[in-house]
Amino acid sequence: MTDTDDLLYSCEDGIARITLNRPDAANALTPDQRNHLIELFEAASGDLNVRVVVLTANGKHFCTGADLRVSRIPESPRPEGAPERTMGDVGRNIKRGAQRLVSSILDCEKPVICAVNGTAAGIGAHIALACDLIIAADTSRFIEVFVRRGITPDGGGAYLLPRMIGLAKAKELIFLGDDLSATDAERIGLINKVVPAADLAEAATEWAARLANGPTKAVSLAKWLLNRSLDSDRKAAFEDEAWAQELASQTEDFKEGVAAFIERREVQFRGW
């Protein structure tokens, strides 16, 4: 995959880096950017060169939501006399857009670290929350901005938030739309870690390097188990766990892990 003007991509030492690059527009997300992000996360799932993904942004904002100046609903020819917008158009746009993007992160077979460098609002917040590990600069904020626009949350927000911080706190954030500081986000368990802004890239790279040297398939299966556990009962979760362990035990990294233990040497995982 290659860079575009508004989205930068690189992959080195197993670490794929995706950087939102519209700082002059507060990294508001365009439809083209969104679709490219989906392609990148879907590609990362099957790319053996990628063992972890780091998502971040340039500038003082992470992502302030969808760019309403260009986030138009795709138009198609309409019968004479038909209104410009009919029931179903908005919902269809959400399914094809914001929901697909969040799903591409949740379903990515590789762990995804989000390094939140500034304001994450609307779909920008939900992109961050869909990631597996979230490190935020101490200057960043999370905002459920939808109520300020008179609309309901999209991009999986009403699904993700209660599972991460409980129903009562999720309602508070969504109903009131107040800014949530990075420190408070860490306190309520919404994110993993807060660091000084100057240390954000280093902190994300440290975790990424650890994951890039880990048993990638085992981590992938663990991600699958953990995400599924939020929607399954004990019987189903235990069944998933047994099959995940069965699959993990067939990998080359499992064999290497056992051999390294027996031979009392440092393990060398390769990612398959």
Parts with pLDDT < 50 across at least 5 consecutive residues: none
Average pLDDT reading: 94
Radius of gyration: 20 Å
- Spell out the CATH superfamily of the largest domain: 2-enoyl-CoA Hydratase, Chain A, domain 1
Helix content: 40-55%
Strand content bin: 15-25%
The chain-level structural class is alpha/beta
CATH architecture of the largest domain: Alpha-Beta Complex
N-C termini distance: 21 Å
Under CATH, the topology of the largest domain is which? 2-enoyl-CoA Hydratase, Chain A, domain 1
Structure description:
With 272 residues, this protein is an alpha/beta fold. It has 2 domains: 7-73 and 89-212, 2-enoyl-CoA Hydratase, Chain A, domain 1 (Alpha-Beta Complex), CATH 3.90.226.10; 216-263, Lyase 2-enoyl-coa Hydratase, Chain  A, domain 2, CATH 1.10.12. It has 11 helices and 10 strands. The protein has helices spanning 31-46, 89-96, 98-106, 123-130, 157-165, 167-176, 182-187, 200-212, 216-229, 234-248, 252-263; strands spanning 7-12, 15-20, 52-57, 61-63, 112-116, 119-121, 133-137, 141-143, 179-181, 193-195. The strands form 2 sheets. The protein has a 6-stranded mixed beta sheet with strand order 1-2-3-5-7-10, sandwiched between helices. A 4-stranded mixed beta sheet has the order 4-6-8-9. Strand 2, helix 1 (31-46) and strand 3 (52-57) form a beta-alpha-beta unit. It is globular and about 75 Å long. The two termini are 21 Å apart. The model has no long low-confidence stretch (mean pLDDT 94).
Question: Mind sketching the topology for me?
Answer:
Layout (H helix, E strand, L loop, with lengths): L6 E6 L2 E6 L10 H16 L5 E6 L3 E3 L25 H8 L1 H9 L5 E5 L2 E3 L1 H8 L2 E5 L3 E3 L13 H9 L1 H10 L2 E3 H6 L5 E3 L4 H13 L3 H14 L4 H15 L3 H12 L9
Parallel strand pairs: 2-3, 3-5, 4-6, 5-7, 6-8, 7-10
Antiparallel strand pairs: 1-2, 8-9
Helix pairs in contact: 1-3, 2-3, 3-4, 5-6, 9-10
